[in-house]
Amino acid sequence: MATRKKKKAGGAVYIVDGSRTPFLKVKGAPGPFLASDLAVAAARPLLARQPFEISALDEVIVGCVMPTPDEVNVARIIALRLGCDKNLPAWTVQRNCASGLQALDCAYQNIKDGRSDIVLAGGAESMSHAPVLLNDTMVGWLGEWAGAKKFGQKIKTLGKLRGGHLKPIIGLLRGLSDPVIGLSMGQTAENLAYRFGINRETMDAFAVDSHKRLTAAQEGGYLDDEIEAVYDSRGKSYQHDDGVRADSSVDKLGKLRPVFDRKFGKVTAGNSAQVTDGAAMLLLASEYAVEQYDLKAMGRIVDSEWAGLDPAQMGLGPAHAMAPILKRQKMAVSDIDYWEVNEAFATQVLACVEAWQDEDYCKNELGLKEPLGKIDRARLNIDGGGVSLGHPVGASGARIVLHILNILERNDAQHGMASLCIGGGQGGAMLVTRDVKEDKG
Amino acid sequence: MTMAESKHWRTERDADGIAWLYFDMAETSTNILSVETIAEFDAHLRDIESSPPKGLVILSDKKSGFIAGADIKGFTGMESVEQAAEFMRGMHTVLNRLEAFSFPTVSLIRGFCLGGGLELALATDYRIADEDPKTRLGLPEVRLGIHPGFGGTVRAPRLVGAPTAMDMMLSGRALSARVAKKVGLIDYAVPERQLLRAAKMIIAEAPARHRPGRVARLSNHPLVRPLLAKYLKRTVAKKANPDHYPAPYAMIDLWAKHFDNPSKMYAEEAHSVASLVVGDTAQNLIRVFFLQEEMKALGRKNKFHADRVHVVGAGVMGGDIAAWCALRGLHVTLQDQSPERIAPAMKRAHALFKKKLRQPRLIQAAMDRLMPDVKGVGVERADVIIEAIFENAEAKQNLYRLLEPRMKPTALLTTNTSSIPLEVLSEVLEDPKRLVGLHFFNPVAQMQLVEIVKGEQTSQSIANQAAAFTRQIDRLPLPVKSSPGFLVNRILMPYLLEAVVLESEGLRPELIDKAATDFGMPMGPIELADTVGLDICLAVAETLAESLEVEIPAKLRSMVSSGNLGRKSGKGFYSYNKGKPEKAKCEGESMPADLTDRMMFRMLNESMACLREGVVESADLLDAGVIFGTGFAPFRGGPMHHIHTSGSQSMKNRIDDLSQKYDGRFEPDAAWGSL
Fold first, then answer.
1. Rounded CA gap, A250 and A232, in Å?
2. Would residue B439 show up in a list of annotated catalytic residues for this protein?
């Protein structure tokens, strides 16, 4: 087995390339792809087009919230399926909705520390394969059944079986609720709508906009270089994010009923992120690797940040994670050319924008002297987001970083910020730049 | 002989008193049972018997496997039935001695355990095999026109019952260790790490020997055998004509008549297999076996080894070639213009992997090796590029222009063209020497033959590399000259066209096809034309017509222009119902006396021409190519062999007759004169 080369610490960290699958809306039944299938479909062509061999990788890091029981350390499975060396370490990271961003951040840190030169990192999620579990009473009954050796005992045990034993636990629903505060993610979004007085029409308009923006991006071919088609075994190929509704309108969305706070709420399926399968995989490299293989970088990671906040307000996570980066980098809102704030809920993105303009919030919650200012909607999620293309929880963090780099290139811009809110009350953010020469900071 | 003089076998006794008898045939990588190795085996058994051990384990020292079978070369030298029977009886005595040992005996099997090798293992009390997929157990004798002759026809039905044993022996199919355990052919299938332990434990425990289940036992009952025999013969008759392939029928009779009397059955087995082995069918099939070995050897002239293959064109041929390469362990990129074009190929690949690999994790691994590649990023790293786009010289040339500068200098550039001269295609290359044809046949997964097409400009070393690659993916390379139709299509087409002419003369397709299958063709020419697609037949015929004297029957053109393309369109010469032709019975209908000759002599005459023109190097390779490429009656040993064994002079007279009777089509090739 090859021994680990000694690497240089402290240099810049580049994102050299990336690919993602189309995001495929879950339509009830389990979809055609597992998380590893999706990550392999994204990373295989990505690696095939690199000037370096796959053996140049130092590690594989993948974010995934709910790997199926067969692929618990899904990163290792992905690495082996891609044909990586057996001696290549691979690990899976979990920070709920920001797992994909966490994977990139881990790769960033390891390269910065000189532990790795080239890392394949990203996120993958097959929400349609989220487990359905047996409840504890049933598991207890099964234990009793296995212990019943004699026929009489078996009959007796059988007699104890009740209808309630068979009630399944839907893993996906449990995953999308916070057991500490007893609220679903949608209910935390209702909290934000209440706090900032965001009305139903504003949310729905934001959602319609998201669909229109994604439609325009698809028609403009802006996603063609980002997406690799995936193929199932039944002769079908999938090439586009299929949750988009080009004909979405405020009228149509207005007819949907609130699903989290029934009857009286404002958050509906139409102004929330879609439940989706997808993967996004990126290649991060050290300065040394970029020189050695003559790689053309898409951009450089400038900074990253994680923040915690009240779980009942979890949707404001981006406001908390992005603010310290601006402060550290001595940047103003206007210095950031484009923003990707993951659309878990339309109202949650709107609330983040509100929070930064709110003197009270900035002072009391973010510890700032003054409000940060307004993020221009024209520079925020310009090609749509979770509401229109879905939010495969483990993958979204990687997708928004990949996509902001594409946006920067398309618009010949410099700085991009990608951020997500995280169930449980956290926020994560990453600042990237196309100015690949390291600036002081 | 003393044990110290042994060349092939070695006995070791361990501290537990177990004798370990190793087979390690000298100067070869594969153990086979020849006169010499059997004699030595016998000497070791006698020696072991003289001071009985606690138990005996028979095992192999070879990496390739246990025992690959009997010495087939030895069979070609057998001159008389009596000589062959004597050889079989000798082995019967040896294996009966082994079977009668008072101490437990075990065969420890890894890798191939075939034919005589499995028959030997059947004579031990127990069989333990490595569960690895490389382990294959089978009795493939029927494929050489014979049947098991070392007591296998007696011991196999006794051990596992007639249905399983007969299925194995009649199909020649090999079983995995897992399946062999399930049917009772072996006692345990274990991982390699437990093999030795398992052998020791089974000797210590000496459990009851395996017996077949009640139903399997019943199948050998004297009242059941005649009924089952009848059923088996009916089933076999669907696949093998008794006049052409007597072995399966002999095997069924042997069992039906003599199963209750083993000693008689051994004697009858020896006699039956001896009569078969000296017969024409077996001798020709053995010849075909060696022709196959000859083609395999062509792949060893060069050490070329590929890891990555890039296929351009995801149509039926390109897609299936890509899938086949991935199945054989290569990393494959498959390029076409859009995902929609590649998706159907991925579906077919998945179906192929499912059929061949079965286990989900192996299917997944094969799918992971096959990457759809619309952007063509696989070109740079490919060791072999296979172009399989539509037959258009300009399109192919444009593609090569793009490919060549991006390819590795050592990569092979190959084309699956069936009609465009390589000399033309290579014009656009910086280095025309590197273009070589790899002409696969449809369906790729079933047709073993690949024509290695060497253009005027192709270097020999490149052609050798192409042959080595063909072997790497377990296909048979046949080097051919880049001339119209190469070998297989050129020989096949006149035969198909003659059948179409016969049909337009008013003969029913059923009758034409029957004449051909009676001759020994696997499928009649009319049905074959329908299956290939009449449009494809016409296209190939038209290409051939450009340079050879091939007359295209008007009927073929009219059918194509009216959209009746054969099986794929639901109607050709036959009408198709769910992909099956609707055929009327033609029992008792009289055939024109020269029906068979008219079809076959078109083929034979073209074979003579190909050999004379040097399309292939030798008559043997021509026979091999035509058998593996067209299914030409293998028991006749190939067209050239058929001409010789039927009497060259009488064959020449027959074509002269045809030539006088029918216009130009039967003009004897110049080569007939020099026979």
1. 35
2. yes
B559 shares a domain with B428 = no
**Rounded CA separation B69/B111 (Å):** 12
Alpha-carbon distance of A341 to A350, in angstroms, equals 10
Instruction: Residue B216: give the domain boundaries.
Output: 3-278
Q: Is residue B507 within 8 Å of B589, Cβ to Cβ?
A: no
Check if the interface score ipTM surpasses 0.95.
no
> Measuring CA to CA, how many Å separate A74 from each of A32, A70, A104, A266, B492?
17, 9, 16, 37, 53
How far, in Å, CA of B320 to CA of B597, rounded? 36
* The predicted structure's pLDDT at residue A1: 41
Please give the Cα distance from B467 to B453 (Å, whole number). 10
Q: Which residues of chain A have pLDDT under 50?
A: 1-2, 439-441
Both ends of chain A: CA-CA distance in Å? Answer: 39
In angstroms, the CA B59 to CA B42 distance is: 15
β-sheet bridge partners, residue B566: B571
Q: Are A345 and A315 in contact (CB under 8 A)?
A: yes
Q: Is A239 on the interface with B (CB under 8 A)?
A: yes
- Check B372 against A229: CB less than 8 A apart: yes
> B339 and A229 in contact by Cβ < 8 A?
yes
Question: To the nearest whole angstrom, how far is the Cα of B378 from the nearest Cα of chain A?
Answer: 7
Q: What percent of chain B has pLDDT over 70?
A: 100
- The per-residue pLDDT for A438 is 52
Name residue A119's beta-bridge partners: A59, A284
Which structure tokens are listed for B60?
A: 């192999």
Q: What pLDDT, in 10s, does the model give residues A60-89?
A: 999 999 999 999 999 999 999 999 999 999
CB-side neighbour CA atoms (13 Å) of B238 = 7
Q: Catalytic: which of B92, B331, B439, B641?
A: B439
Q: How far apart are CA A428 and CA A108, in angstroms?
A: 14
B505 shares its domain with B400:
no
Residue A436 has what pLDDT? 62
Question: B503 and B447 in one domain?
Answer: no
Closest chain A residue to B335, measured at CA: A45
Mean pLDDT across B489-500: 94
CB contact under 8 A, B381 and A48: yes
Contact A378, A131 (CB under 8 A): no
DSSP characters over A95-112: BTBTHHHHHHHHHHHHHH
SS percent in chain A: helix, strand, coil, step 5: 40, 20, 35
Q: How many helices (H) and strands (E) does chain A have?
A: 15, 16
- Looking up tokens 């990505």, which residue turns up? A46
* Ordered structural domains, chain A, with CATH: 183-223+302-432 (3.40.47.10)
